[in-house]
Write a structure and sequence with these properties.
By secondary structure, this protein is of the alpha/beta class. Helix content is 44%, strand content 14%. Helix 1 crosses helix 2. Bound molecules: 1,3-dihydroxyacetonephosphate and iron/sulfur cluster (SF4). The site of 1,3-dihydroxyacetonephosphate has 12 residues, from loops.
Length: 327
């Protein structure tokens, strides 16, 4: 196929943003979609919110807003474009819809789920409330709107401890991520009742991985997401939400670092830090990776797939998210 030189010239400044992490030879396969997405965003008055785990060509070349779950939720509230395309997973799109219900919210692939969100149902929470009467339920945002609707308040990995302590009670239920709950329990005197949900990406990291990294790369700084098992977080130098990991690199500029989280994080952060050596054992999130330039373009062309939430559920779920944002 002949190369479209005008297209390549037009998109050359965009390629320069990702030149450190995407081989030049691959750009011609992306340039057409990137160019079309930028045009379609203008035509549809659309905005793209992208999570930190999105691939660099999405994160750096077509997204309008990037960040962790908390930042995306906050920004979704004040979007005034007509259409929000959520380049992330389904619960993130639902959260955007809850917070800005008059907008059309699209997700490019309805199958972009989350093992944590799949680990618990609204009925499970009703049973927990019977078992622990009066104990408040804190729900990680990585859950369906149905589950949020049964909860007192939501949290993200960026504010979980603050949310737990904001309630002023000695005991809380925090679900569905057992490891996040255990990691927060180590930082607070509040007793935390957990649920046995796990992130299929972060549960794979082990303390042995860290020991090997420290042996083969002396002086390496190990950063972990708090969805990792507690023994991994304990062996790491720092743990925090995806935004907190990114900020750590930005502020401390460690000469050599590893991010124990989803693979695209290192690529996205590395783009801004040529001076930092990123060592890259990582795990792919198959759900996040369902989102591609091709299906973002298709979403903007066809208006599919629209994310909706039953209004009765939405009203209760929104309360739980808004309480979190007020902390
Ligand atoms: P953050 O809120 O830290 O971005 O995490 C979201 C997520 O899905 C991590 O696996
Ligand atoms: Fe869910 Fe884990 Fe993927 Fe995050 S990385 S979306 S928690 S499966």
């Amino acid at each position: 196929m002949a190369l479209d030189t005008a297209l390549l010239e037009r998109t050359a400044p965009l390629y320069e943003r990702v030149a450190r992490v995407i081989p030049r030879v691959e750009w011609p396969t992306m340039a057409g979609d990137v160019d079309a997405i930028l045009r379609l965003k203008r035509e549809r008055n659309a905005i793209i919110l992208a999570h930190n785990y999105q691939s660099p060509e999405i994160f750096h070349c077509v997204a309008d807003v990037v960040g962790d779950s908390l930042a995306l939720a906050r920004r979704a509230m004040d979007v005034d474009a007509d259409v929000i395309v959520l380049a992330g997973v389904h619960f993130m799109a639902e959260t955007a819809k809850l917070l800005n219900p008059s907008k059309t919210v699209l997700i490019p692939d309805m199958g972009a789920g989350c093992s944590l969100a799949d680990s618990i149902t609204a009925a499970d929470i009703r049973l927990l409330r019977q078992r622990y009467p009066g104990v408040p339920v804190i729900t990680y945002v990585n859950t369906s709107a149905d589950v949020k609707a049964e909860s007192d308040i939501c949290c993200t990995s960026g504010n979980a401890r603050a949310v737990v302590e904001s309630l002023g009670v000695p005991r809380v239920i925090m679900l569905p991520d057992e490891y996040l709950a255990q990691n927060i329990a180590r930082e607070t005197s509040v007793e935390i009742i957990t649920w046995a949900g796990h992130c299929e990406v972060h549960e794979q990291f082990t303390p042995q991985d860290i020991a090997q990294l420290r042996e083969s790369h002396p002086g390496i700084v190990v950063l972990a997401h708090p969805e990792c098992p507690p023994e991994v977080v304990e062996a790491a130098d720092f743990a925090g939400s995806t935004a907190m990991l990114s900020d750590y690199v930005e502020q401390r500029k460690p000469p050599r670092v590893v991010l124990l989280t989803e693979c695209s994080m290192s690529d996205n952060v590395a783009v801004h830090h040529p001076e930092v050596d990123f060592i890259r054992p990582c795990n792919l999130c198959p759900h996040m990776k369902r989102i591609t330039l091709a299906n973002i373009r298709q979403a903007l062309e066809t208006g599919r797939h629209e994310v909706t939430v039953d209004p009765a559920v939405a009203e209760r779920a929104r309360l739980a998210v808004e309480r979190m944002l007020a902390v």
